[in-house]
Amino acid sequence: MANTPSITEEFSPKLSPTKHTIMEVVSPKLPLPTKYSIMEEAKANRSQEFSINHDIPPSNLQKTVAELVGTYFLIFAGCAAALVNKVQTLTIVGIAIVWGLVLMAAIYALGHISGAHFNPAVTLALAAARKFSWKLVPMYLLAQLLGATLASLTLRVLFDDQGGIQVTMTQYKNSTSDLEAITWEFIITFILMFNICAVATDQ
């Protein structure tokens, strides 16, 4: 009987004596919030709110406005480079670089909203390939045509009667036949759509 442990000893393990009091062992102190922890928590909440808002798809109006703005920037900058070349030598290479840089910037800025078509040929081709809804085609075409028209009107006001610049339309030399012009347009448009379908749709 003397060696038999009591019920209290069996179910109540002994605590090794330490410098801490019983109150400290049973109820450890919780760390007080600091300005850094508060800032991290606020930052996490903002990130969560941003991710929730980011998951909301853009509306059709936002897509249409994005196409209008992107087409405006593209036509304005590209055609302005060609017009400036009439007054100050920019060279064909410089004009091409302007077109490429503006298109790249517009894709980065607006691609996540509308898909960055900025061209009726791109919209129609993607719709024909079933990569774009036909319901949005009229809205996109109207936005692209309106953006290009506004850009042209802006350039007409800015470059009116400067350096012999006149209002004209896209045309080819008299020595070029209609068949040659159509062939060139087909080849260039095919290359454009081939790259877009290969990069944007992985097909």
UniProtKB/TrEMBL annotation:
The keyword Mitochondrion does not apply. Keywords: Membrane, Transmembrane, Transmembrane helix, Transport. GO terms for cellular component: membrane. The chain crosses the membrane at residues 65-84, 90-110, 139-159, 181-201. GO terms for molecular function: channel activity. It is found in: Membrane. Its main location: membrane. It comes from the Eukaryota. It is a multi-pass membrane protein. It holds the Pfam family MIP. Belongs to the MIP/aquaporin (TC 1.A.8) family. This is Aquaporin NIP1-1-like.
